[in-house]
């Protein structure tokens, strides 16, 4: 059972976690995940249970969830079902990351000494 496991992960770590979840699923194990991010899970999920105020409000196959209008999923508090849907408000194409920091000629070292 995992509660929003992708919440503090970068894209690379999410994909690594997805691969681990796939291995667990291939072993025949049941995985329960509470999550708002959907894009990395839909290929793994057998069914998606949508809850509203502690009650089951819908049960979907991944394909059924994909077919729901984006506005409806947004009103449900769910995020994009694919990376192609990730956009900034008013943006017409997928968002591309903008570098916020650039490092040049950086090195790190430390001395190993006696204690």
Secondary-structure element string: EHEEEHH
Q: What structural class do helix, strand and pairing data support?
A: alpha+beta
Number of DSSP strand runs: 4
Average per-residue pLDDT, rounded, comes to 85
Strand line-up across the major sheet: 1-2
Distance between the termini: 43 Å
Treating each run of at least 4 consecutive H or I residues as one helix, how many helices?
3
- What overall form do the CA principal axes indicate? extended
How helix-rich are the residues, as a percent range?
Answer: 10-25%
Which residues sit in consecutive blocks of at least 5 with pLDDT less than 50? none
What amount of the residues lies in strands? 5-15%
Q: Could you give a short account of the major beta sheet?
A: 2 strands, parallel
What Rg do the Cα atoms give? 19 Å
